[in-house]
Write a structure and sequence with these properties.
6 strands, 32% helix, alpha+beta, 42% strand, 4 helices, 184 residues, six-stranded mixed beta sheet
């Protein structure tokens, strides 16, 4: 039992140091925009009808290449941009930590569509928007060119997980916190 506790504390320290060191490796606005453009291209190719759905959204939050890793203690991090009317209006990071039965690592893309003006404004007004606490996201996991029936979706916030690489037992945004950043 003591070995598990020491291992968990060590991993927690590694994650904390990694998140703190993130500012050293933070991407520039130009790098984030390039990643967002590539992510949206993948989204439009992999999610049939995704381009049309994104066009109907009041805002689109794109988080490319979000990395998640865990061994009892886990963490997740990524940087992306919020686009309104096809233009980047602000930049965000996503960070979360967890403790529990977990093992593995993965990178994945998130596209979150704000379908109502109220949902978008609530997100933009927050100091740190947490999924499940500040807003519920109807999360859709996409694989292999599946078609999504968008006509039945009435949720104010719809999230897509796609282009998953690696293996992790859990795909969720529960506890993930989005915070506005100011890249160089």
């Amino acid at each position: 039992m003591e070995t598990v506790r020491i291992t968990a504390l060590f991993l927690a320290a590694v994650i904390i140091v990694g998140v703190a060191a993130e500012s050293v490796w933070a991407k520039t606005a130009q790098e984030i925009n390039a990643s967002v453009n590539a992510c949206l291209d993948r989204f439009y190719k992999q999610v049939k009808g995704g381009k049309e759905m994104a066009a109907k959204a009041n805002g689109v939050l794109v988080m490319p290449g979000v990395v998640k890793a865990g061994l009892v203690v886990g963490g997740e991090y990524g940087e992306g941009a919020l686009r309104v009317g096809g233009k980047t209006v602000s930049y965000y990071n996503l960070a979360s930590g967890s403790v529990g039965f977990q093992i593995g690592g993965e990178a994945k893309d998130f596209v979150i569509l704000f379908m109502t003006d109220a949902a978008l404004k609530q997100f933009q007004a927050s100091k740190g928007w947490e999924v499940g606490l500040d807003g519920n996201v109807a999360l859709i996991n996409i694989g292999g060119g599946e078609r999504v029936d968008f006509t039945k979706m009435k949720d104010p916030i719809i999230g897509f997980v796609f282009d998953v690489k690696g293996l992790m037992a859990d795909i969720s945004l529960k506890g993930a916190k989005f915070t506005k950043i100011n890249p160089k």
